[in-house]
Every structure is written in structure tokens, then in C-alpha cells.
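Follow-up to my earlier ticket, as requested here are the two runs.
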Amino acid sequence: MLLPLIVMVISVPVTLYITGKGDIFKGSGSTSVYYAVIMTLFFIYFYFIPGRLISHKAFFKSFYLGLGEMIPVTMILLFAIFIGKVIGNLGTAAYLADLLSGNISPAFIPMLIFIVSAITAFSTGTSWGTFSIMMPIGLALGATMGLDIPLVIAAVISGGIFGDHASPISDTTIISSMAAGCNHVEHVRTQLPYALIGGFLATLAFLVSGWLTL
């Protein structure tokens, strides 16, 4: 049963090399995984069925059961994308970030940028979307208020990753619960305390760093 895994593992770098036109680092990860799965399925069918290790009926039964298990995950991902688009179009992140430009000491800005980035990523379920929204705002605030720019960049990235990790609608959270075969809500509930500890410590660190870099 290790052979299908070996075929898949070998197929991924090969297809990365092909899709990258000779450069494995420029290959498409999603396309490579897709073709690797297809090749593995063909290998299982043409290797195991002639060898009578699995019947034709059992193969397609398992195949359709696997597809069926992916439907709820796919629907959650689609709705997560829709929710993220709606929140982004409403300008939620821009509104929250605009609140920081009031009468607040510059020392608090890195911490607040981290918190706003975390809230945005948690609400949208995407760290990269948060980066694209919050990075221009954070850099503008940093330049205007004379903040340490690397610290501002770190606050945006850290907040985005923290919020994305803790978000129940994040693709990484959804896929993790699916891969583990556990209830999605239970997975979110059990991972949240660990994420909050890291988020709390990061908040304190950005507060201290904000004071030290003035």
C-alpha cells in the first residue's frame, strides 16, 4: 500500500518541474498536486485491479465515497471565500485601521496594527488578503507617525497569520479538520486556546517594541 504514496510523492516534483518549464521552484503547486492525484489514481487502477488486490467495483465505490467526503469541505471553502469578499468590499479593514489614526500615542500603533490585522484575518479567513489590505495602510501610518517600518511590517504579517490560523473559515483550518477526520467546530474550539496564548504574547511584544523603537 506504500506504492501509491510513493507514486504521488514522486509525481509532485516531476509536475512542478513540468509546470515550471524546467524550474521546479516556479511550478504551480495546485496544478502539480492535481495531476499527481490523477496519476496516482490511474496507477492504483491499473496496478491493483489486474493484481486482484482490489476489485473494479470496490475501486469506484471508494472513489465516489472520497468525492462525497470532499463536498462539505468544498462548500465551506466557497462560502468562506464569499464572506471574505463581502467583508473586503464593505471596507471593514480600512474602517478599523482608520480608527488608529486618531489621538493615540505612536507607541501603541504597532500593537494596534497587529490586533486589527488579526481581526481582519479572523473575519475574512485569509492572511494574504489581510496583507494586501493592511500593508499599505500600516506602512502609511508608520511613515506618517515616524514608526519603525520593519516593526510595522512584522505587525501586519504576524496579525494576519495569527488571525488566519484561529479563523474557523480559514482554508488551512478547514483542510486541517478534514484531514484529521474530526468535527470542524471541535477542531476550532481545541486549537483556539493555543492560538490565543501566542496572540496574547505577540500583543505584549509589539507593545513593548513600540515603546522601545520610539
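Run two:
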Amino acid sequence: MDVPYAWGAFVVIFITCLYTMWGGMYSVLWTDAIQGIIMFAVAIIMLMIPFIFVGGVDPLMDQISMTDHISSTGEPIGSGLVTFGALVPFLYILGIGLSVGMKQISEPKNLIRFYSIDNSKSMKFAMIWTPIFLGVSLICVMGLGALVHGMATAEEAEYLIQNTDEVIGFMLDKFNDPWISGICVAGLFAAGMSSLASVIIIIGTAFVKDIWNVYTPMSETTIIKRTKWTMFIYCGIVYLFSIYPIDGIVEMTAFAGSVFAASFFPAIFGGLYLKWGTDMGALTSMISGMVVNIVWRFGIRFQFESMEYIHEIIPAFIISMMVYLLVSKWTSHRIPGDAHLSHIFSSRRK
């Protein structure tokens, strides 16, 4: 498109910022519906591109089943693209899978969608179609990197392995169809805008109304004004990180998913299924999940060769869940009363 990356990021981020500030939660939900349809269609299209480029299912599978492309370790990949655990250990695959999968359950931007459902008909629709749309989309995109090897030369593949963020751009450029490229880029924009809009809402409302307003009560008008300013400032921070990323998109997404899963999943699980869970159990599990994630990734994982492939989601989630259970037991005097539990669980506590 011959548009500098910095300008493209600016346009996407601040258009999202403006419609979120202007329309609030309703704008996020309505644009999400449209963006979700676009993303679902684009995921299917992107899966089809390598097969169409090479000439069908069998030719592509023949190419990637035995390739002379070099892996990140400098060794030939061979049949590694179609052999489970050949290129990376099972623990690493498990870690990435858990961090991405559990993120869908515990990520705040998804939780606000779950809690915005206000009737059984909509809930039934969501329970049926969410796993279908999500499952198909993940199947389409999770293996895309391996399929693109069938479109790349050995030199191109060697570059892409070191620059994984450029795989989609390479695929579209290699396919060389302006219409398909435009549709897929629209899907990528939709994905980014959908995620960002939800996080903007959460950051603004949580910081101003749930934290600032508790310590310094303010009028509704002031809350709205300061919430919008907080959203705007947050978008500026996001823009800086998009211009100067600290890591590749896959690792950053997996790390974020690990933080969300370890910090929030125990509290969500306990709130839904354990009548004896407490507020202190939830709070301490959130803190421990974040701390263990950071310590493991930056202090342990890459400092010891034997730990490199043990993703931070594994120790962080285990410790966070144990903390939730133990602290809830130790603070049993803070368990809500029977009336509250009866209201939440629709039955009296035994």
C-alpha cells in the first residue's frame, strides 16, 4: 500500500480511539459484530491462499512434508512441519496452546462481552456459535506459518523464520492479488481494532471509575471526561509500543495470554464454581499470577537452557491456582453470606 508503518499504525489506533471515546460500549459491541464477521471470512481466505498458490492440497502437503528449509536452530527442517514435536518440545507447544486458549476465557476484553449478555436467548446463541466461530478461526490461522513454507524459497523461509511478523505480508505479496490482499488487510485491521477498542474501554473505566473514583469521589460528568482522557493517553502508549515493539507478535500475544490466564482464570473459576472462594483469594492469585509470569520470563526462562521451552503459563497458572485455593481457605471468615451465595448460585449453600 506504500504507506509508512508509523502512519498506518497511527490511523488504525486513533480511529479506534475516537469511535470508542465517542460511542462507548455500544460502539464497541456493534463494530465488533461487523469486525468479527470480517475476521472469520478472512481466516478462511488466508488458509486457502497457500493451497491455491501451490496448486492444491496434495502438492502443498508434498512440499511441506519434506523440505530443505532451515529451522531457527540452523538445522534442516525435513519432515518437522508435519511431525508433532519435531521442531519444538511438547511443553512449549502446550504452553503456547494454553496461553492462547485460556486467554479467550479469562481476557478482560472477552469477559465484558460475556457479562453484557442480558437474556437467555442471546446466551444460548453465544454458547453455540462462539466455539464454532472461534474453533474454525483458530484452525485456519494456527497452522498458517507452516503452510507458507510451501510458497517460499529456502532463502525466503530463512528470513521469515527470523521475522515471523512478516509472514502474512509475504504471503499476500507472493500471491499478488490486489483484491485478496485488500480483503485480508481489512481483516487484520478489524482484528486489531476489535481488540484495542475493548481494552480501551476497560482501561478507561477501571482506572477512573473503579479506582480513582473510590479514593476521590467525583461527579458523573467528571468521571466521563476523565475516562475519555485516560483512553486517549492509553492509545498514545499503545502507539509507542507499536512503533517500538519489544518482541515478535507471537511471543507478545502468548505472554499476554499467559498473564491473563494465570491472573484471572482462578478467580473466574472460583467465582463460578466454588462457594467458599474469597475476595482475598482472588486478589492474591491475581498478584501472584502476574509476578510469577514476569519473574519466570525475565529472570529464569532464558537464563537457564533447560528452562527455555517451559512457557511461563505453566508455573504461573499452577502457583496462581494454588494461591487462590489456599488463601480462600485461610480467609474463610470472608466468605460471603448465605443470602448472597443463594442469589449467585440459585441455591442455598450446604
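The only thing I checked on run two: The chain has two domains: 1-88+117-245, 248-345. Let me know what else you need.
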